[in-house]
Sequence to fold (289 residues):
Amino acid sequence: MQRDQLADFLRLRREAIRPAEVGVPEGPRRRTHGLRREEVAMLAGMSVDYVVRLEQGRSSQPSPQLLGALARALRLSDDERDHLFHLAGHRPPPADGVARLARAGLVRMLDLLGDTPAMVLSDLGEALAQNRASVLLAGDQTGFSGDRRYGVYRWFTDPAARAAGVSEEQEHHARRLVADLRAVAGRRSGDPTVTGLVDRLRAASPDFDRLWADHEVAVRRADRKTLLHPRVGRLLMDCETLVTPDQGQQLLVLTPADAGTRERLELLRVLGIQDFPTGPTGPTSTPAR
Fold:
C-alpha cells in the first residue's frame, strides 16, 4: 500500500470534481475546490473520519469493496480506478469484477438524467448504480449478493420479484429475460460466470429450464412494462437500453408511457423516500431488466 501516493491521488481527484457533477449544490459561500470530504464520505457510504485518514496517509488498508465505492463516488475512469487499486495494494478486479463497477461516464449520465429513473446494469442484469429517481421507483437494487445480484435469477427463484408486475405480462417478460441471457452466453462463450449462472438457474427453476430449451435469442433494447408500485399504484413505463461498445454495461432509462403515469411519478418524487424502505426488501425488488 502506497499511503502517501494514495492520499495525494484521492485528494486531487476530490478537488477536481465540480459539485454539480454529482448533484451537490455549490452555494454562494462555498470555498472548497471540488467536493468536501464529508460529501465524498456520503457518496461512498463511509465515515468522514476514514476519508480524512485516507487523505492524510494514516488509514488501514481499504478493502476492494471500499475502493469500488470510492471509485464511483469520485467518478474515476477505468484507468484511474485500476491505479487506485494498485496504490491501495490490491490487484484491480478481474474482467468480471471490473464489469461490476459502473463506468464513470454512465454514472455521470445518471446524474444528468435527474428526475428520470435510470440505472447502470452489467450485461448479466446486475444493478451497478442508480439515480435517486430509480430508487424511488424500484428500490435500491444494488444491495443484493450472490446469484441474487442478477435480476433474471431473482425473477425465476423468488416469487416476490414478480409481485411488482402484472400477471398478463409475466410470460413475455420471462421470455425476454431468458432470450437476453442466451445472447450474453453466446458472446461470452465458455465464461464460467455465465455458464455457472445458467446451470444453477436450470437446476433451481423448471420454468427457466423450459424457456432455455426453446433457444430464443434477443438482445433487450426497448420494452414496455407495467409496474405496480406500493405508494402510487400502476405505472406504465417505456424502457430504453443504451449499450456500451463492448456490450459489458448498459444504461437503462425508464420514462412514463402515458399522462397518468407521468402524474403518479411526479407524486412519487414529492413523497420522496421518507418512511419508504429500499434495498433487497424495498418497494418492488423487481428485476432491473
